[in-house]
Amino acid sequence: MTRKTADAVLGRRRTRMSPEARRQQFIELGLARLEHVALEQVSIEEIAAEAGVSAGLLFHYFDSKLDFQVALMEEQARIVGDIATPSRAPGDLSEVMPILTETLAAYVDHIVEHRQSLLPILAGVSWSDPRIRDAVKDVREQIVAHFLQYAENIGLTRSREFVLAIHGWIAVVEETMVHWLDEESEFASMTRDEIVAHLATVFIAIASAVGLDLASGAGDRIIDMGPIVDDEPATT
Description:
The chain is an all-alpha fold. It has helices at about 5-10, 20-35, 45-50, 55-60, 65-85, 95-115, 115-120, 130-155, 160-180, 190-210.
C-alpha cells in the first residue's frame, strides 16, 4: 500500500503549511495533550498522527523530544504571562484594585482550566533543562515589568521595596493556587471568588507595607519611596 493510499484509507488529507504554521500546529497539539498527561508522557507519535504526518517530520522542527517539551513549556509560560498581564492601564490609583481583581479572576480561571499542565510550573518543579526555568522566570519578570510600568504611569515612584513587593506577591499567588487546587488541602473548599478576593487583599497589604494605601476609596499614596539608586560603595 502506497503512502498516498494509506492516507486515503485513514481519512487524512495532508495540508501544505508554512514552517512557522506547522511548528505552531505541533505545539498546539502538544498543549492539548498536556491537559490529560504529564509533560514526559506526551507522545511524539500521537502528536504526529493527529497532525496527519509522520513522526519524523516533527524532528524537522524540533531537534529532539526534549526540545519539543521545552517549546511546550515556553508556550505555556507565555500564555500565562499574557493572562496575568492587565489588559488596560489604570488612569489613577482608584482604578488599581478593580483592574487587578479583573486580572486575577482571569488568571485563576485559566489556571483552573489548565491545572494539569500548569500546576507543575506553579509548584516550582525542578526542570532538567535550564531553558524551561528561564522561560518561567522570564514570564514572572514580564509581569513585574508591566506592574511597574503601570505604577509609573499613574505617578508612583519606583523603589526597591516596591519591586520586591511585586515579586513577593507573585510568589504568594502561585503558592496559593497550588494549595487551593490540592483536593486534599484544607483550602480546597474555598470558592473561586474567595480566592480572588484573598489574593487582592494580600496585594493591598503588601502595597501598604511599602507605602501605598489602596484600601481607601481614593487610594492615596502614603509616602514617596524615592527612585532606585545604586548604593554608594563602602569607604575604608
